[in-house]
Amino acid sequence: MMKTKNTLLLLAVLIAIFAYVYFYEIKGGEERKKEKEAATQLLPLKKDDVTGVILERPADGFKIHAVKTDDQWKIIEPIETEGDRFAIEGLINAVVNSKISRVVAQDTTSLQDFGLKPSKAMVVLLAKAGVKDTVFVGNKNPTGSFLFVRRGHQPKVELTSTSMSYQVSKSLFDYRDKTVLKFDKDAVEKLDLKVPKGHFVVEETGNSWTITSPIHKKADKTEVDKILNKVKDARVKKFVVETTSNLAKYGLLHPRYVFTVFLKPNQSRKTLLIGKKDTKDNRFAKDDSRNPVMSIPKSVAEGLNITLFDLRDKNILTFNRDSLSKIELIYPDSTIICQKDSSDNWMITFPDSEKTKSWKISSLLSGLKNLRAKEFLGEKRFLFARAGLKKPRLRVRLYDKKGKFAESLLIGKNYDSKKTYVTNKKMKEVFGVSTDDLKNIRVREKDIKAD
Questions:
Q1: H/E element holding 294?
Q2: Under a CB-based contact definition with an 8 Å cutoff, are residues 347 and 360 in contact?
Q3: Is residue 381 classed as helix, strand or coil in its secondary structure?
């Protein structure tokens, strides 16, 4: 009985020790840590609670007021414009993450000594439920490693880190949204582009793009993406004037470049006008839905200065190489037929049954797949005879796994030392290709037959 009582007593002591360690040392320690951190926090606010910020600098008369609506920042003073989220939240973070290192003065009698009368800057954070907190920012301390500050609701002068110093010295330009033309690239369904070399209209068709003016041809998706990205990613170098009635002064009354996108689902429109040179490296520009005249990098205009050739899809063949089962190489004097066997290996089946060099077949298919037009030479019927495509030097015919004819390439004459005429199964247009690009396609039986 005594032994059982001692065991229970020991167990009760262990439970008491565990409870002390858990509730005082662990849980209590966490609470004391939070209390200590809260006591050193410059302001009792979290970044996500802040819905507005005011920054003033008495020395240069600077003031900016920004408010947050639906996760977007808008500047409402000294002008109304979109705000740069990263810059504005950088200022807010610098304030709410600052901690007090120590108190250097208990009252406001010597504020001038610390650069706090007048202050170098004043930051007001506006939060939900009407909460407002103010921080006055002064000089750096003599070592330059701390910053003198005063909290609006307290008379004492304190030291904090210098992280706020850079943020409060920024200009209106730093806090403005510098997107040249804001649009959702994935929502673009039509691009209308007027440039010195032409006027082009490109429209989305499924997962590709089609030129609809001045011709109706498939567009180069990579080129269209590059054009869209060039404008979407462009950033303002300078806001020249906030508003003007004299667009001609900037070459924007009759701009050299007009970039317009139409967006899903309602064909809403976004247009960028690009005019005269501002400097050697910049051009004047304007979003036609906003007032400011901007200075933007000249590389934006250079990226739009395309030709119809640049915009066209230059792929001559469009087959899927994994779906092929048969290749015919038809020369004027001979024919070679290659087919896949039951193990998916390519074999020569005509004129003889032979194994192939698999790398040679792979090289042949890559050459066909990667063949690109260097010129578009026209669609008139007489061109096909002149180009030697009525009696081609080589006809390559490709068949799918069901044995259905899929694609063909007809190779005609050379028309200079570096280019050759070709066409495809549609036989609607003559293309010029690099003669060197045909080397891996013009193969004979001895080239592809296994040793």
A1: strand 293-297
A2: no
A3: coil
Domain boundary among 288, 311, 334: 311
User: In which band, very low, low, confident or very high, does the pLDDT at 38 lie, cut at 50, 70 and 90?
Assistant: very low
Does 378 lie in the same domain as 305? Answer: no
| pLDDT for residue 40 | 76
- CA 207-303-259 angle, 5° bins: 70
Q: How far apart are CA 191 and CA 366, in angstroms?
A: 32
Same domain, 58 and 160: yes
State the average pLDDT over residues 66-86: 95
Burial class (CB in 10 A: 0-12, 13-18, 19+), 203: middle
pLDDT value of residue 128: 82
**Which pLDDT does position 36 carry in this prediction?**
46
For 35, the token pair is: 């209390």
The CA–CA distances, whole Å, from 171 to 56, 74, 118 equal: 11, 15, 19
Predicted structure pTM score: 0.84
Residues 349 and 275 reside in one and the same domain: no
- Residue 12 is assigned to a structural domain of this protein: no
pLDDT digits (tens, 9 = 90+) for 368-391: 999 999 999 999 999 999 999 999
CA 152, CA 140: separation in Å to the nearest integer?
19
Band (153; pLDDT cuts 50, 70, 90): confident
69, containing H or E segment: strand 62-69
- Partner residues linked to 297 by β-bridges: 282
Please provide the average confidence, as pLDDT, over all residues in the chain: 92
HSE-CB of 404 using CA atoms within 13 angstroms:
4
Instruction: Look at residue 28 in the predicted model and tell me its pLDDT.
Output: 46
> Which structural domain range is residue 220 located in?
185-311
Residues with Cβ < 8 Å from 292, sequence gap 6 or more? Answer: 81, 239, 240, 241, 242, 243, 286
Q: What is the CATH number of the domain that holds 355?
A: 2.60.40
Distances (CA, A) of 262 to 219, 310, 423: 17, 21, 34
DSSP-assigned letters across all residues of 357-380 = -HHHHHHHHHHHHT-B-SEEEE--
Burial profile 7-19: b = 16 or more Cβ within 10 angstroms, e = fewer: eeeeeeeeeeeee
